[in-house]
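All the exercises in this workshop are built on plain-text protein records. A record pairs a protein's sequence with a compact description of its fold. Read left to right, the backbone structure tokens trace the chain's path through space. Once this layout is familiar, the rest of the handout is easier to follow. Here is such a record, shown just as it appears in the course material:
>
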Amino acid sequence: MSNVLIGLLGMALALNQVQAASNFAERTRAGTSIPVSPGTNDPVEREYEALLEQDDAAQEEVDQWIRDNQAFQAKGAGVPAQELNQRIHDRFQPVVKAYEDFIQRHPEHSRVRVAYASFLGDTGHEEEAQTQLEKALQLDTNNPAIYNNLANIYGHTGPVRKAFEFYSKAIQLEPSEPVYYHNFGTTVYLFRTDAKEFYGIDEQQVFDKAFQLYSNAMRLDPTNFPLASDVAQTYYGVKPLRAEAALTAWTNALHLAHDEIEREGVYVHFARVKMLDQRYREAREQLNRVTNSMYAELKKRLGRAIDNHERESRTNNAAASAGEK
């Protein structure tokens, strides 16, 4: 494998288990799905499971290295990025070799290509990931994970209309997987011009479509705080501001927060939304609930922004009143 991208320094590789309806589970990682076999004594499937475990172990270890190095750098220590990248490269090399060896011996095994594509995408090799997924689709046209993961790539590289089509196909094949709705909603929201043209709708209807997809994701995964936060943050891009809907979404996220750090992060967003809605006293009340030092700079900047917004609002109102008189 070529050099691992510096962008790995921000990567989160936590895994969670979800259940699919096609007699195999799917692991989801950073919006991609990895098919996993049910329990079996088939030696090929046992080898495939062992390969997934090797992949998981490597990525979890690398993720820990990255977190540790970030912590050390914050204290003035840590290793240079180039040195860390070389260490990551060396750790991933056996995984690459294991995947390529398995594929050479079992070229018709579509699910290993999906897993390898996820690994390649995580390590910054999107073009190679797309190649593996396209080969997997040739082998298995009814695997929703393939359509979802290819749609993720088309959302990055185009054509975007193909991303819309492939997310729809993934949902058609597996309507109970929340990550498909989440990814689809995000793509519709980000590529509003394409969505308007593709679906023949206006911008407000595009927003409505994105939020309906998010709603489906939340219905299927109602305790997912990162998902709830993503949905709530989307309202910042909606014009005109849907303040009450945004506050409702952040209230839902607040109920799902795991600790005080996450809760105070939500208070910051409450303050920002209320500032944008010209509810300045309430915005300051929310900001006063933020006490953790990690938010100190953000709190200071937002406090200044509230003051500026309020002054500007008063000036505009005074000018409007003078004009009327």
